[in-house]
Amino acid sequence: EYDFQGLYKVTKVATKNLNRVIDRNYYPVAEARRSNMRHRPIGLGVQGLADAFLMMLLPFESDAARKLNEDIFETIYFAACEASCELAARDGPYETYQGSPASQGRLQFDLWGRVPKSGRWDWAGLKARIAQHGLRNSLLVAPMPTASTAQILGNNESFEP
């Protein structure tokens, strides 16, 4: 059984910590600092998803692996959006929030014409809170294979069946 609550909690902590990095980071040029402060992008990713499938005895291309993949990424995106909204309630939305898809009530899955399927998370409630407070970060998730990090951690670099 996958621990979605644990993933949710860790994702919220990681989101808030990455947001702090923006304020404390060293920027080699003023333009980089200005851009990060205006848009406040962060990039949460995934390591070891293929390894999780193996540990759970799920064939990589199985329907069960695809569903778990969707559920994991839905959990990460929900928790990241919720944490960013909590930060926006406290510190305000990122400077260029107005006019963004999120400011118009459209999150990533809306832009793709998809609807989250798990029923695990209250997307309508979160969208209402985002409409009220906004988001603190313009970008939240950025899954990409990182071969060198995967080698260091001893994981398979793939993140998608």
Automatic annotation (TrEMBL):
Residues 123-145 form the Ribonucleotide reductase large subunit domain. GO terms for molecular function: ATP binding; ribonucleoside-diphosphate reductase activity, thioredoxin disulfide as acceptor. The keyword Oxidoreductase does not apply. Keywords: Deoxyribonucleotide synthesis. GO terms for biological process: deoxyribonucleotide biosynthetic process. The keyword Acetylation does not apply. GO terms for cellular component: ribonucleoside-diphosphate reductase complex. It holds the Pfam family Ribonuc_red_lgC. Belongs to the ribonucleoside diphosphate reductase large chain family. This is Ribonucleotide reductase large subunit domain-containing protein. It comes from Alexandrium andersonii. The lineage of its organism: Eukaryota, Sar, Alveolata, Dinophyceae, Gonyaulacales.
